[in-house]
Amino acid sequence: MTKILMVVSGADHLTLGDGTAHPTGYWAEEVAVSHRVLREAGFDVDISTPGGVHPTVDPISLDERGGVDEAAAKGFRAYLDSLSDELAMPLPLADASADDYDAVYIPGGHGPMEDLAFDPDLGRLLTALDRRGKVVAALCHGPAGLLSASDGDVFPFAGRKLTVFTNEEEQQGGLGDAVPYFVESRLRELGGLVEIGPAWSVKVVVDGNLVTGQNPQSSADTAGQVVEALKVRSAA
Asked: Which CATH code, of 3.40.190.10, 3.40.50.880, 1.10.3720.10, 3.30.2130.10, is assigned to 3-235?
């Protein structure tokens, strides 16, 4: 069976530019919707976090502060509740092997900016998967996790087309200039060919085995493109 490793941030805060801690975590819709699409396609999905910690859902991703109406939030809560056992005991990221998975999928929330962006285990995993042509996918702030694959001189995703939660979206509905860095800007600095759509619109970019989505609105489409990419590879 096709196996996907969903790497979820274990951070419960983001250290802002002024050194203060802002409560955060993973974005509910991005985990719930992406996981559902991948599972309904018949794929086996393992959840992993740094250190195997129980990940924290960003509370604003489940109410109107995050632009989420109650009906949608209720659905996200119900799906996440169905994953409670898996979320309570995720696979430690250090124990994940590229040999065991056909794809990695990194959902967002501000959490990845705190931990996944600097996680050497994730960096090794992404580099190994990419070298083998396996699917590497990231959504919204999830592409911050791609930064972990940079060794300072080489960034495996330089020259590759991708998208990410934009600087504009960060200013409009994120944390604005309070963030320690803008993920879009950091990816551009490392040579990523960032393509963006209008703020809060659905935008997915596929470049070979690299699949990225711009924002929470792109959750279902990003996961859907991963499904298609894996089907093509399994048929080859």
From this structure: 3.40.50.880
